[in-house]
Amino acid sequence: MTADNLSSRDRHSPDLVRAHVFISGHVQGVGYRYSTWDTAALLKLKGWICNLRDGRVEAVFEGSSDRVQEILQWCHQGPPTATVTEVTVHYEPPEHLRSFEVI
After folding, report:
1. Where are the alpha helices (DSSP H) in 47-89?
2. How much is the pTM?
3. Annotated active-site residue in 18, 33, 56, 67
4. Which of 9, 11, 51, 67 is catalytic?
5. d(CA 24, CA 76)
6. 47 is in which domain, residue-wise?
7. Does a structural domain hold residue 81?
8. Active site residue 33
9. Alpha helix (H) ranges present in 12-103?
10. pLDDT tens-digit readout, 33-76
């Protein structure tokens, strides 16, 4: 399954939101980015995720409000090998991204 599968209705939905997220803790080298990609694909979210030099993970999620809230909940735990200590979320205007990428 790819993260590119949003129906036309979902793409133009009035409840489209964009969350810009920073995840702290033991979140690099534990499969956090690829586990997040899998979860985003299941939720049909758009966006991206990358490692930062300071040890955090940065991500952007775009989709319906309920699906974005679901992945934000997931980000607080992450994969079994991660230890998340903080998740910071900033909401921004959606950019209508077309896919979800691991950077």
Report:
1. 65-75
2. 0.84
3. 33
4. 51
5. 9
6. 18-102
7. yes
8. yes
9. 32-42, 65-75
10. 999 999 999 999 999 999 999 999 999 999 999 999 999 999 99
